[in-house]
Design goal:
mainly alpha, two-stranded antiparallel sheet, 2 strands, 5% strand
Length: 175
């Protein structure tokens, strides 16, 4: 029996050896490093948008006030002075723009057609608050009040009496 096992074992080794000799050999190569070209696309920087320091509500309230107070006035400088008057009150502690303009019995108004002029005056006012000089102010800072007759507004530096504004500042609106 032992001989039979040995014969089977020998026969098995012979078959495996023959098969190994007849099989094609495959050479295994080390993989070469793969270099992948990647194109880096840098997105175009988006243009920087500078937010305006005022709100849409402030512009609308001022435009409405301007329509009510100066709708018959032809001079943009005189209309701008109405906005400056309200902003002067803000600077003197009467509240924020909305509070100053909407306080009862102070200003009347409302027309959206004057928004561009309000944005212009707000731009100048904020520039002045940031330290710029000669921003195109058409009303001195101490003129907080005005009254009108339906054609012109008369600006003054005291609630009762005071000096009336004489329009001596250069206007950025009229040449």
């Amino acid at each position: 029996m032992r001989g039979l096992r040995f014969s089977i074992f020998l026969w098995f080794v012979t078959i495996v050896a023959v098969l190994c000799l007849k099989l094609p050999t495959v050479e295994v190569e080390e993989p070469s490093p793969v270099v992948e070209v990647v194109e880096v696309v840098t997105p175009e920087p988006e243009p920087e948008v500078t937010p305006q320091p005022w709100t849409d509500e402030e512009v609308i309230v001022l435009a409405k006030m301007l329509w009510g107070e100066a709708r018959g006035v032809s001079s943009d400088a005189e209309k701008a002075a109405c906005v400056w008057c309200a902003l002067n009150r803000v600077d003197h502690g009467y509240g924020d723009i909305i509070t100053v303009v909407t306080t009862p019995k102070q200003f009347v108004g409302y027309n959206d057609g004057l928004i561009t002029l309000c944005i212009d005056v707000l731009t100048r006012w904020y520039a002045e608050r940031e330290g710029q000089v000669e921003v195109g102010r058409v009303l001195p800072a101490d003129y907080l009040w005005f009254s009108g007759d339906g054609e012109r507004n008369r600006f003054r530096n005291a609630y009762r009496g005071g000096d009336r504004w004489d329009w001596s500042l250069p206007s950025p609106y009229e040449s």
